[in-house]
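Sample intake sheet
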Amino acid sequence: MGRPFEGFMPGASRVSSTPPQRTGSSHVRGTLQRNFFAVQIACIVLGGFISIVWGGPPEWGISLLWALSLVPVWLSIARAPAAIVSCHSLVQMLLLWWWLGQPAGMASTWGAGLLAPAFVAALPAFWLGVFGGWAGAAAGTVFAVSALCDTPGERLAAVFGVGLSAAVGQSYGSIHRNLLRARRRLRVEALTEPATGLGNLRALERDFPRLRAQAARAGVPLLLTMWDLDGLKLVNDTWGHAAGDALLSSFAETFAKTSRAADGLYRIGGDEFAGLHLGLHDGSLLSARLRQRFSMVSVGWARDEGEELVSLRHRADRELYKDKHRRRERRADRAGLAAFVERVLPL
């Protein structure tokens, strides 16, 4: 028996298997942004209807300016959503401040009284809380109280109404962001093999159609490589499973360093690994690089010819077992394996 394996724990070498899909910066992204625009458009439609039925020039003007103010927000929200929405909310409050001062406006004609400033500032204060957090909520409340209110009664009503709306917005934004972070973390964990940090079989199945489409668009081949780390069971039996895990982690790290950044790398079984490689015609050079450090690895590969992933894996597996059979006579004995493990791992 070899010496017990101590003092080393394997670490993840590569968390993501392939680069995530990217979208243009002009696209409005995120549920919060979509909700923002949905609410804004609904308010504009409602305000426009009220303006036509009961209002006059002040209401028509503010409805038009409100609608036009969404255009630059739509074009730039993907770059800095918190800053853009916060600025838009402050602009909304300035428009409402102008509206409250119009003698021919509905607020004056209907005698809305103390609740008018709090009511009209509630929506922009809510979105300040959503995107700006507590700082945005406080800024919206202070701005509304100072700019929209003239009397102590109005200020008190605005502090209560606007402050409540801003606090609700802050809570909504915080909960929503936490849920999104949890969902992203779960998605990553569902597609990641924890011992090595590479993608798992589910990630391979997810990435294959996308990489095939990229290869077709670029007019380059897509190669699937299959790898088998020979001797893993002997390492587990001789030095313990911690040594086996460390060997897997070390191989995964070398696999990632040897491959290109755009390659998809996966651990799909106990000692089985796979790779998807855009623009690679065969795996001979890649296998030669890996075998400089891991001589005990068998490999097979197959170029994508339009078949299902299962069929492509089957072809690569056949080549893998042919290579395993050719290498069987040259495989290291226990003493040779011990020398290899001591060279690769910090025993």
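Comment: The two ends are 14 Å apart (CA to CA). Residues 152-190 form the longest helix (39 residues).
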